[in-house]
Amino acid sequence: MAAARKRRAGPGRATAPAAPPFPVSPSSPLQRLAIPLSLALALALLSATDRVSDQLVLTRSVWAAAATLIGWTLMLALQARRDGRTVSLHTVLRPQHYVQAILHISVLSYWGYHWRPVYDHIWLLVAQLLFAYAFDMLLSWSRRESYGLGFGPFPIIFSTNLFLWFRDDWFYLQFLMLAAGFMGKAFVRWERDGHRTHIFNPSAFSLGLFSLVLIATGTTSLTWGQEIASTLTLAPRIYLFLFAIGLVAMYAFSITLVAGTAAIVLFGASALYSAVTGVPYFIDSEIPSAVFLGLHLLVTDPSTSPRTPLGKAVFGFGYGLGVFLLYAVLGLLGVPTFYDKLLGVPLLNLSVRWIDRVVARLREGNRLEHWSPSWAPAQANLVFMTGWILFFGAMTLVGATDRRHRGDTVPFWETACAEGRPQACERLLQIQTNYCGDNAGWACNELGRYYAEGVVVEPDLDRARSSFAQACELRFQAGCLNLLRADGWLSSEPRPIDYRLLLREAGPNLVDMPEAALLPRACAHGWRSACGKATP
Amino acid sequence: MSNPSPPAPASSGSHLGLTLLALLVTGVGAWMFTQTPAPIRNGNLAGSAPPPALTGFRSDAWMLPNEPELGFVEIPAGPFLMGGIPTTDPGAFENERWSATLPRGTLTLPAYYLSRYEVTTAQYAAFVADTGYEAAADTLAGPGDHPVTHVSWPDALAYADWLTVKLAADPNTPEVLRQRLEAGWRVSLPTEAQWEKAARGSDGRVYPWGADADRTRANFQGQTTVPVGSYRCDDCPYGLADMSGNVWEWTRSPYQPYPFTVDDDSDSLRDDALWVMRGGSFTDPERNIRTGTRGGGDPGARRPFMGFRVALSGP
After folding, report:
1. Rounded CA gap, A305 and A524, in Å?
2. Is A89:A147 a contact under the CB 8 Å cutoff?
3. Quick one: closest CA in B to A488, which residue?
4. Does residue A223 lie within any of the structural domains?
5. Pairing of strands B311-313, B306-307
6. What ipTM did this prediction achieve?
7. Given CB atoms, is B252 within the 8 Å cutoff of chain A?
8. Is A528 part of any domain?
9. pLDDT tens for residues B242-278?
10. Are A341 and A440 in the same domain?
11. Which CATH class is domain B60-313?
12. Which of A46, A254, A527, B269 is least surrounded by Cβ atoms within 10 Å, i.e. has the fewest?
């Protein structure tokens, strides 16, 4: 057992199957083709569930996916009959598949408990799994390869859905995104360590590719991407939860150096920026929770990352730095910043052979002697894990994880913007946009004023009117009156209903908080007008 | 027995696969370009096709009425009696009393124009088609010649602002309207005083046609809206149609106690917004379709019994 653990942890073992392939009992090609056919029919049957049948486009998307799979299966069956073509199957049970799947399910369950749309999405996850198995199977057989039946599609589907899914009206694009991931796995390959293997982490590949398309076409609103990125924090102590989940992955797959280095780079760069500029780099956290999730469960696929300790550290460093830079670049381009954690992974996957080569050269030149302790790989991983635990503990102690973040309050950014701090006005605009999106009428009216007055942002009267209209529809009287004005824009203090959203600290709204407790909390968050009223 | 087959070499199959992958991504990108971003408001996206032609309305003038002044009726300057109390009007509500000492107030308004009909679904559809304004699906679901419904207070104002721009820019706008617009007049919602004067005239009528409710003169206590102008009212003070019933009509007045002022109530910004709506609807009893009845509407409400008409008035 210990030996097996040591092998798993050691370099060069990550992509090798943990168990030998088990051939599936003999049957004819046509009988085997009954498997994808059954999966496709099961997919079609899902259209009878309320979740799918309530929405016409969604129903048609499922039917179209099922019909494609059935057509493909029949085509293969005809070929098998005509040409005597073989269709083979073997079982492959890899821990990196089923353990990762369990971790993904844990995150989805915990997050979904606090954000209902995740649970509403369950039938669609099942649909994607059915589609993924059938598609992957048919793709293998079309390429005259044996299909390795195991849990492979699980982490691909789950990790994709932890970061991006399309809205019901465009759900057919979700199936196409998955198809792209599997095609990338099958066709975009290279030689690595004497094996022909896929270059890209399949889910990261499709996420990266579709992110680019969504950015280029300005169609992010077809997806739930923004909501997904911002709702993880609705789950209490999400950083601690992800940290605990991450430890399992670190122990099982020796990815400590990847995730840990990425996190350290992000924490470090963020702290450095904050020290220099006086404002946080990320708007309301030291590392956005979705990025923290990504560096544990998206970038850490052992098959597509380096296998040496130094290589892993370089890989993690690259991810951390990439996210840090992409956040700024996307923000400057006016693109949703949640893509920061998705775009860099395929590029890092592409750099793996280069990283391997550099590490090998360093090793050949004995330049790593001082940096290579004589620990066994498993021992080394435990040491790295200990370091990571200590680092995370320290970050938690200084309030850089689950505690309230100074950047999550509007007054902080108002002051910073007025002082001319870097990016502060952009952040103020962003945070007001977020709160307005949460239906805080006060924030919508402030946003309208910003656009109308052109102080925080370039003047844009159409946007101003749109924001005032939204404030008005939320019964914020100043917003209504501003719609009747041509200048002299009105402002007013937040109402209790607004404070319930403005003071939520990235968690759930404070609908149950007594009104008497709201004002002291507002005062503590920097709302000076609330302070006098908070004192009994 | 099935054995794993040897790995396939990089071949034309891979090239075909890569080509298919490239086609898939390109196709998805091209398709996404055709999709409208951020289309969601109330879960639906209204259609953007221009409305079909309707008898009595001009398809070359944003479906406004085929009248010399596009349905705008001048309400001359002068005084009128506003408000009421149960002693003189048994149906009057307490919120119609002018003040503690006066049951009614006399208000003098400058001249203005009010549209003869409620804004129709076709007119609103012309606005949506021209601007891409996000309308709820129910907004445009009704027949073109019925009053538009499921419009919020900001929706109504947005329509009025758009019409101001359109009328001002169109060389075919009737001369009398053009002159007003050039003088700084704007299309907007009427104030509740403008609405009430137009409905009851200077002789203080309880209903636009007289003192008593009449099922043959207005659409009330019914099941649904009817085409605008179904109940013509030539003997009403200014010949306006559907001032009683059909749909409640938004005004630009915040809901505040009488006496009426043009004050925009900006000293009570912390209160929840409520805006006056007038005229009652097809769902209401006779008491609610009186000329003096004041309703308070949540500005974000989009209901099947709420619409609006527009006014053209000076700065």
Report:
1. 45
2. yes
3. B266
4. yes
5. unpaired
6. 0.87
7. yes
8. no
9. 999 999 999 999 998 899 887 666 667 777 789 999 9
10. no
11. alpha beta
12. B269
